[in-house]
Amino acid sequence: MDISRRGLLVGSGLGVLGAVGGLTMGVEPSASAATVRAPFRLQSRAATVAKFAGQRPSYWGFYAPGVHSTFSTATAAGKDAIALAFDACGGTVTYYDAALIATLRKYQAPATLFINRVWATNNQATFKELLADPLFEIESHGWAHIPLSVTGRSAYGIRGTSNVAGVWEEVAADYWWMGYNCNHATRFMRVGTCFTDDVSARAATWMGQELVSFAVNGDAGATFPADVVYSQVMTSQPGDILISHMNRPGSGTNPGYQRAIPALKAKGFAFRHLNQVVGATTVTTQPAGWATISQGSHGSEVAQVQRVVHVTADGYFGPLTKAAVVRYQSAHHLTPDGIVGPLTATAMGLTT
After folding, report:
1. Which residue segment(s) compose the domain that 20 sits in?
2. What is the pLDDT of residues 274-285, one digit of tens each?
3. Quick one: 37 and 143 in the same domain?
């Protein structure tokens, strides 16, 4: 195996954690969602399951059909360009390599940062700062940081999602979390471990999130020493998407990039965000969604919710309906607050 393209993604903090404190994971606004709804589109859980359930995967790995690992160099933006991309992983290693980010800023090297929700909640001030910096493109690194599989396959000892509904949850939860907490809509997602099957890849793209892998493995989960990081990054060719990590300060990643970035610039390379060089993928998007409802609400939307949670569909959101909604949210890995905003409504299949 060519290490520059398929080096092991080990040591990057790939354990799975549950919800954490701080920035509110999966909590929906109690007021109308109109302030964040307009740019946000994602296919519902029900629609995704209906379309992809029963499909049998035929591929497992980093490069499922439709997953981006390179981009066209035939455009003005893509000519002589590469895409630096750094993962902020979830799991047990959620530190911040401030020196690496300082290096990118020093050399004004644009980069795409794939952010996992656990890392974001453990580095809230830093995450907000990175979101505000135009040097960086912020994209999704998943909710639980696990492989995408419709059959429960594992990578590096980490069990992936087990069905299409699980794929939807891993993709959608981080997407909606960034929407509600940061008013930020992601276009791309790098799957935890980068492993996916072909059914999951098709489902994610159809939902509205394009999966990204890599052509050059810069640091092997931040385990390479600096000289190996340097040599790996220097193998880059125009059109390559790289992978390295920003959650392990003190690794060889930053010193390797300190040498590689000016050397690549001297060779005539430009650095681009993925949004600048990856052409648009045609996906079907759902209509704009759902006004948040909660206890005290009434009307036809309440009755729809009641049918899903199996209580009398009388159209009044009372204590029994709230309790049933809380049970539903708990069962579907949503924050059990009893409020039916766009995230819960999408999970219920009510926004298609």
Report:
1. 3-277
2. 999 998 553 333
3. yes
